[in-house]
Design brief:
Elements: H1 2-9, E1 13-17, H2 45-50, H3 52-71, H4 76-86, E2 90-95, H5 101-105, E3 110-112, E4 115-122, E5 128-130, H6 131-141, H7 162-165, E6 180-184, H8 193-204, E7 208-212, H9 219-231, E8 235-239, E9 251-254, H10 257-268
Parallel strand pairs: 1-2, 1-7, 2-3, 7-8, 8-9
Antiparallel strand pairs: 4-5, 4-6
């Protein structure tokens, strides 16, 4: 903690956060201690757009999972990041999460690398609408849908069988009748280049990169750590368990994020 606080106290810190930061808000991660419960593989873009049965199953699962995402509240870790940003020590936040909890805690601006579950996009006309609007339409179209399931998954859905989802009614774009998709980046889909370029720009101008709650298994996030290392930007990682870039970090903290980040915010206040 002494090394970590010394690094952050100098300012110019860019935060790269992952699913592990939101576990204390009740949203499990993919590969950490809470990520072992997932039974189904995440949806891919190709399956979502090409398989009507899989798409219906996704929306049924997401319809139920959205309750947990919508009701989730920022935890101590999110609040600590917002406090560090407000204090001028954190100059940018890049998140791989789609839950909006950084913003709910007061962080601004935040680059949502993989989009946000609070929005829905039409793949035909490009119209973007609020998820709450879609939720109301889905409720009206499925007044008796109450399939039982386990806990929510990191990407905001729950595990359902084809039989449980068979009677779920999917709704289309209210404007053009096109296919609706959550405004998030599915597996097999490319992160929009403007977000990638803006994230690289933050990292290249940073005095330090602070990775929070990410195993850095996916290149989508790990590439920013690799870029920071090539530029000689100091890297600190706070995570529960090892990551794929531990060898690039000058500071490693393996501990629960909420308590650790609150302590960090106090030390550098």
């Amino acid at each position: 903690m002494e090394q970590l606080s010394g690094l952050v106290r100098r300012g110019g810190v860019v935060v790269l956060s992952g699913a592990g930061l939101s576990t204390e808000s009740g949203i499990p991660d993919y590969r950490g201690p809470s990520g072992q419960q997932r039974n189904a593989a995440p949806m891919t873009y190709q399956t979502f757009t090409g398989d009507p049965v899989a798409r219906r199953r996704y929306w049924a699962r997401s319809y139920l999972g959205w309750r947990t995402i919508a009701e989730a509240a920022p935890n101590d870790g999110h609040r600590a990041v917002a406090r560090l940003q407000l204090g001028g020590l954190v100059t940018g936040v890049i998140t791989q999460n789609v839950d909006g909890l950084h913003q709910a805690a007061g962080a601004d601006p935040v680059i949502e690398l993989h989009g946000g579950l609070d929005r829905v996009v039409c793949l035909d006309c490009g119209d973007v609408t609020a998820r709450t609007t879609l939720d109301g339409r889905l409720r009206a179209a499925n007044p008796s849908f109450a399939a039982l399931s386990g806990g929510v998954n990191p990407d905001g859905d729950v595990d359902l069988t084809d039989e449980q989802a068979a009677d779920f009614a999917v709704v289309d774009c209210d404007g053009c009748g096109g296919m609706l998709k959550p405004d998030v980046v599915f597996f097999g889909e490319q992160v929009p280049m403007p977000r990638v370029e803006a994230s690289f720009a933050l990292v290249e101008a940073a005095a330090a990169l602070l990775v929070l709650g990410s195993s850095l298994t996916v290149l989508s996030g790990r590439r920013f750590v690799i870029r920071a290392a090539k530029l000689g930007v100091p890297i600190a990682i706070v995570n529960q368990g090892p990551t794929k870039s531990d060898e690039l970090a000058g500071v490693l903290v393996d501990a629960p994020l909420g308590k650790t980040l609150q302590q960090l915010a106090e030390l550098v206040a």
